[in-house]
């Protein structure tokens, strides 16, 4: 690292020009990269996805999508029964005018349940084409125009469904650029407090370079495979937080060395040699957590792993090249005005660390009990989809759904089960599967839109939305009965997508978890030259993960706070892909702070030979840094939570909960108390292991297990 820093300083102008070119290139291709991203959440090889693909190929719609529910309400004094032909004509017009849709209503199925109990509102199910492009729009506007053009005078139309309710409102949200600006302004405020000088702008420059470099790296990869549209949000906002954190660590250490009297050149070298070393291990740890997603047989999760891993790698590259180059060129001039000095450890954080050492048993006990209590809440998690109650509480889509519910229409219509059957046996299939408990009715539509190539799509309406691990049992029962029913070619729908995801992803989760834990442990053993510290870090990072999921369950699934903060009632379940995504990102991000703190503790122990001194100095030197870094990441996640989609809000708040929980209870209380309790055993690495890892062995200053003094000094 020292030689690397010398190289960057010797060629600092070339380095800055290189990153300027990278930033320009990244900005130029970012739009192209975004256009190539998809919203494809299919699961190749899984039964539900295979059936959905057959339906899409044969009928040009449905399969992967939950349908729209379109409503036509007649004025007071008129009923649907008195104008069936006119109502049917409106829905037929939608079928004729909107490309690639399949309309089911009373006219096409003969089912009177397509009319509300008061007789004034008729509705239809509109299955539309599944578009995977991130820039493609669902046909909401086209359906509205078709209804407007055909509706009789005095009638009221409505369009609802999972796809339009999921945005939470008619608004498309602030957009990525605005969200990044919101996060940047918040980060700048924190950085201004930390540095109290013009240096506050330097981490933002590093973040901008990192984000644009990540888009540039993603361009050639997008030629080799598809990437989920979620990746663009993660690059922009998590990239902002991670790059700022890494740069903040290096710049703070540079400033510390400068205020101790080192000249600018030597200060840059020492900062890169020490803080830069921690940045490398932090970045690799984050990347490991994300690349572990590659073991899952789900394309969009794999794309999150690859795209997400580019974020810390680009951030490490920018931090270890551009940061030394800028500090070597203009660092001293930007460190103005010098209101805050870094030549001594924070007295506040040092006193806090001393308190944790003196009260280590109490601190460890309170921390563990608090975390275990949250883990207890996690055991009640329901994995599935957000219920319709939590998707929107206002807007035209909400009003249309409310009209149907007041009219006695079940919300199971939002998540129907599509059964692909041979046309000759369609009615017997409907009769058999319609008897499954939890199914309200079975529809066998006539006409070419639902009957082609000897195949018919039978639609089953469940009693309630199949959106979580409890209500989806009805779908499982349908699948079991369908396997024994002649004429059934396959079963699909939103419920089967959840079942397939749970089988494909969470069945492989133990393998992913073991892979992450093993690789992280080996990496940290080498970083800290200790067998025990990395083990503690991995185990309590997993405990922190469980506690974070407990907070998600309380806040979102049970709605304790979600309505107050976001105006969203309890979701009833956590969207099936969210827990795994939160885990992959949060595992590495929260480990960052462990690396920052323990790397400094290791340095202080090597200098003093005292565990207590290492704890007090390590926390004293990194406490404000870690807190500020966590706050910056939290603000980035808060910006992401401003997106209109409920699922993105759940993911963003989950990441924010995890970062704050980790930076407070775990790193500020549990870490120092446990390091104190483990005493000299923290610093032991036998020669046999050290030789394999190509590092120096480590022997405690006093023979283990001699306890450390309980009081500082």
Automatic annotation (TrEMBL):
Gene3D superfamilies: Multidrug efflux transporter AcrB transmembrane domain. It is found in: Cell membrane. One of its GO terms (cellular component) is plasma membrane. Residues 195-329 form the SSD domain. Keywords: Cell membrane, Membrane, Transmembrane, Transmembrane helix. The chain crosses the membrane at residues 176-194, 201-221, 227-251, 278-298, 310-331, 361-381, 505-525, 537-556, 576-599, 625-645, 665-685. It is a multi-pass membrane protein. It comes from the Bacteria. PROSITE patterns: SSD. This is MMPL family transporter. It comes from Actinomadura darangshiensis.
